[in-house]
């Protein structure tokens, strides 16, 4: 059940992760507020409050926040690939910097950010943009939880399942095991569960990092 005192505000709340998370939070009794583009408002979860705005603009994000809220930042480039390096800077990094600025000015209770597993041997521009987003959070002093999945498997996102035998092999080799765990696949159910836990149990310290093994953990 809901344990936070403020609303849970989602950026990217009508996307792949956001839709599932909003529905799950509402079912648990949370007040959920979505910052959405006007064109996406019709895809919002039933029962969520809607604020039309721009997740790349800190003033717009701040307009959806109140002191004591939890902000879950889910904005990012859809289907990231090495060819989208410019988008990682213009969307992924720009949006989290805007979110951090808004969170600092409004004095929210907690920021939850979906980053990416690191270090990683591929997708260097994507990892670099997310790492820079993490640095912005760490430098802000805002209490935050950072989750680091590598790939979230679910409807329309099942391609990497073909690599399951390779993951199993790597997990048996001591030298490869740490990377296999850090870069392991997580399900949409596991990811939304980890996000709910992050919302409901803010860290006692200023910053908490949640890696793939913790995302996969039940409960």
Structural class: alpha/beta
The chain-level mean pLDDT equals: 94
Total count of helical runs of at least 4 residues: 8
Net shape: globular
Separation of the first and last Cα atoms:
13 Å
Rounded Rg? 17 Å
Give helix and strand order, one letter per element, not per position: EHEEHEHEHEEHHEHEH
Structure description:
There is one protein chain. With about 220 residues, this protein is α/β, with parallel strands linked by helices. It contains eight helices and nine strands. It has helices at about 15-25, 60-65, 85-105, 125-140, 165-170, 175-180, 190-200, 210-215, and strands spanning about 10, 30-35, 50, 70-75, 110-115, 145, 150-155, 185, 205-210. The strands form two sheets. It has a seven-stranded parallel β-sheet, sandwiched between helices. Strand 4 (about 70-75), helix 3 (about 85-105) and strand 5 form a beta-alpha-beta unit. Helix 1 crosses helix 7 and helix 3 packs parallel to helix 4 (about 125-140). The longest helix has 22 residues, at about 85-105. The relative contact order is 0.15. The mean pLDDT is about 95.
Put the structure in a nutshell.
The chain is an alpha/beta fold. Helices cover about 40% and strands about 15% of the residues.
Strand-helix topology:
Layout: E1 8-11, H1 16-27, E2 32-36, E3 49-52, H2 58-63, E4 70-73, H3 85-106, E5 110-114, H4 124-140, E6 144-147, E7 151-153, H5 164-172, H6 177-182, E8 185-187, H7 188-200, E9 207-210, H8 212-216
Parallel strand pairs: 1-2, 1-4, 2-3, 4-5, 5-6, 6-9, 7-8
Helix pairs in contact: 1-7, 3-4
């Amino acid at each position: 059940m809901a344990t936070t005192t403020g609303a849970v505000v989602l950026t990217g709340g009508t996307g792949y992760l956001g839709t599932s998370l909003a529905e799950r939070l509402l079912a648990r009794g949370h007040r959920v507020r979505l910052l959405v583009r006007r064109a996406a408002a019709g895809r919002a979860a039933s029962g969520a409050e809607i604020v039309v705005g721009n997740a790349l603009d800190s003033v717009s994000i701040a307009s959806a926040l109140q002191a004591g809220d939890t902000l879950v930042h889910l904005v990012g480039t859809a289907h990231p690939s090495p060819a989208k390096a410019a988008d990682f800077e213009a969307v992924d990094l720009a949006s989290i910097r805007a979110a951090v600025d808004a969170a600092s000015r409004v004095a929210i209770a907690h920021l939850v950010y979906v980053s990416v597993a690191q270090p990683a041997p591929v997708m260097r521009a994507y990892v670099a943009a997310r790492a820079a987003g993490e640095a912005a959070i760490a430098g802000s002093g805002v209490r935050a939880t950072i989750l680091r999945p590598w790939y979230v498997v679910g409807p329309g996102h099942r391609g990497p399942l073909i690599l399951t035998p390779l993951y199993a092999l790597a997990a048996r080799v001591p030298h490869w095991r740490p990377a296999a765990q850090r870069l392991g696949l997580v399900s949409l159910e596991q990811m939304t569960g980890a996000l709910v836990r992050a919302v409901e149990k803010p860290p006692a310290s200023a910053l908490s990092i949640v890696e793939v093994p913790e995302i996969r953990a039940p409960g």
